[in-house]
Amino acid sequence: MAGAILVHTFAYACGWGPITWVFCAEIFPLKYKSKASGLVTSAHWVGFYIVVRASGLLLPAVGFQMFWIFALFNALGAFASVLMPETKGKTLEEIQLIFDPWLRGEETPREVMICGQDDSDYDNYELRVKPVNF
């Protein structure tokens, strides 16, 4: 059991752990970023508290079967990660254009490309938006 906990902690620290902080910091508009980041941080720690408390209560009650419950939640998390739009290589402005309608549930995520002459000429940027097909 100690080995399983060690492997879980290592895998989480190298995988999902940092993604939560980076992804949530990127998806919110600047107007709401501080409040939303605080809410996400609170939800993150409440979730950890629930997992720790549930482990202490479930292990004596159901034994090893408790880990299947956690495996189910991991599978749901993996499925949710497939639904989230990709943010790699995009600026915060591009990410905001992707997530604004998506967070409000207005339409599907969009791939956004901003093209300009050089990085210092933001006034002459052209915005091209095309739908993403899943």
Main features:
134 residues; mainly alpha; two-stranded antiparallel sheet; elongated; Sugar/inositol_transpt; membrane
Q: Your description of this structure?
A:
With 134 residues, this protein is mainly alpha-helical. It folds into 2 domains: 1-84, no CATH class; 87-134. It has helices at residues 2-14, 16-27, 33-62, 66-83, 92-104, and strands at 110-115, 126-131. Strands 1-2 form a two-stranded antiparallel sheet. The longest helix has 30 residues, at 33-62. The chain is elongated and about 50 Å long. InterPro entries: MFS_dom, MFS_sugar_transport-like, MFS_Sugar_Transporters, MFS_trans_sf, Sugar/inositol_transpt. The chain crosses the membrane at residues 6-24, 36-59, 65-84. It is a multi-pass membrane protein. It is found in: Membrane.
Entry summary:
This protein is mainly alpha-helical and 134 residues long.
Overall pLDDT, averaged? Answer: 76
**Main beta-sheet annotation:** 2 strands, antiparallel
Q: Report the β-strand fraction as a percent range.
A: 5-15%
Strands ordered across the widest β-sheet: 1-2
Count of runs of 4 or more consecutive helical residues: 5
Q: Give the termini distance in whole angstroms.
A: 39 Å
Query: Outline, from the CA principal axes?
Result: elongated
Structural class: mainly alpha
The total domain count is 2
**Quaternary structure state of the chains depicted:** single chain
SSE topology:
Layout: H1 2-14, H2 16-27, H3 33-62, H4 66-83, H5 92-104, E1 110-115, E2 126-131
Antiparallel strand pairs: 1-2
Membrane topology: Multi-pass membrane protein
Keywords: Membrane, Transmembrane, Transmembrane helix
Organism: Symbiodinium natans
